Amino acid sequence: MKRNVVQEKTYSFALEIISVCRILQDQKDFIISNQLLKSGTSVGANVRESQSAESSKDFIHKLSVALKESKETDYWLHLLRDSELISPHVAEELISQNEEIGKILAKIIITSKRNNNIQSRPQF
Asked: How many C-alpha atoms does 63 have within 13 Å on its Cβ side?
């Protein structure tokens, strides 16, 4: 079976998000923790779901949702970093991973749209 790099990266990223959210919940920071947990794990869930897409448009749509969730996750990670609720080192590592995932998703979406003659270009 061929390796799916974006699926591997988003799964690994989700595991790290879960770890950070556990720490936040131990600190009683439930609201931001829940928001980050939802968006950060949703990226990989939508990537996984895209593997069973019913059409090219459905595939692109599911990856577009994953990209939107990645952008939301970026917001929460910056907020956590700037409010000093997590260490700058942890935040920067997660932000960097998320940016890489976002760029990969955007490239896949652009390529898929080009191959299927669909307009518009997502950006991360």
From this structure: 29
On whether the CB atoms of residues 101 and 6 are closer than 8 A, the answer is: yes
Q: Which CATH class is domain 5-115?
A: mainly alpha
Question: Three-state SS across 65-124?
Answer: HHHHHHHHHHHHHHHHHHCCCCCHHHHHHHHHHHHHHHHHHHHHHHHHHHHCCCCCCCCC
Tell me which DSSP letter residue 55 carries. Answer: S
CB within 8 Å of 97: residues ≥ 6 apart = 9, 13, 16
Quick check: 58 and 43 in contact, CB under 8 A? no
pLDDT in tens, 81-115: 999 999 999 999 999 999 999 999 999 999 999 99
pLDDT value, residue 117: 79
Q: Which helix (H) or strand (E) covers residue 8, if one does? A: helix 5-26
Which one-letter amino acid corresponds to residue 87? S
Domain ranges of the chain: 5-115
